[in-house]
Amino acid sequence: MIKLSEPLYDQSTLDVVKTILDSGQLVNGKYTKLFEEKFAKYCTASNCVTTSNGTDALFLALTAARITKKDSVLVPAITFFATIEAVLQIGAKPIFVDVNPITWCMDYKDMVEKFDNSVTACIPVHLFGQPCHDIVPMASYCKAMGITLIEDCAQAHGATVDSENDTRHSKVGSFGKMGCFSFMATKNLTCGGEGGAITTGHKHYAKKLQLLKQHGMTDRHTHEILGYNSKMSEIECAIAFQQLFSLDKNNDLRIKNSIYLRSALVDIKWLHAQYEPPNTKSVFFWCGFSVDESILNHSTLWLVDKLKEYSIECRYRYEKPLYYQPAFRSIHPEDNSFCPNAEKLAGKLIGLPNHPKLTKPNLKEIVRVIKKIDKDK
Predict the structure, then answer these.
(1) CA-CA to 230 of 20 to 30 Å: which in 100, 256, 290, 321?
(2) Where are the chain's structural domains?
(3) pLDDT above 70 as % of the chain
(4) Apex 155 CA angle, 252 and 370, nearest 5
């Protein structure tokens, strides 16, 4: 089976884990501080606060920004549920923005059109490793309108966007007031668990987030604010710290594998690769394609099952836009959102294996199988 992802741990990681276990310092040790410092620097942000997972990162970022049930938050109509889950947990209402038809990220023009006086925050998602190519004008618009921009970077560790006026802060996680990351098992940077982090260039947010994730504690006996228990363990921080040294190398392998697949499959008329605008650098969490079912003459799920028959795992996500999710509808049954591009893409997005452990024969086999499916369809 050609798998979608495989662990990337080496002996040095195992040695660090053993050292931590032997020390007995399993929370808030030196590796928590080391990772926060190194990841902030990597993302060209001045601060990083680790969290228990990526969803908590979004929730705590919204809390630090003082988003409440009186507010609305702009979100893309297609992404993982956690993005709106955090908004709903806060009590705010998601306002769904359509996605760009070829990059699949939040559409800037529709974002502006969906703005009203209830909107106090915006969460663009850098989807499948592809950063929002309009993140710079999005950030400028949000600043002008007094909206808190929170980047969802859960799938895009190390992805970049160039700006004509400022290339100093080009990595995702440095454009908004805060950037939220996930380090769960399949991500480009993993921690051996469900860790997350928030990057920010604002010291007051960093201070607030550190309090929020640890019961609002300023010392062992004083709880200054109402907080939560959302810490990333010392072992997880150590694993993430070790993986950060090889993140760029592993991202380069994902990019190389994805370029090979995209080039080799360019003549398959029913596959359309996620577009990478020239001002961006995707890190290909997915090697993403949309499926034209009218040309394939089969459903996307049929294709996924067919690939599995040939021992190739395939990502298949987001069968419907988020506004159809029962958890959202149960809270906002009156919502009448409709995003045309999201409707066309939903249920037709796949990701082919592209992880760093793939061999050239693996990649050639993926191409061979898809060309065979194309021929036999």
Answers:
(1) 321
(2) 11-244, 247-376
(3) 98
(4) 65
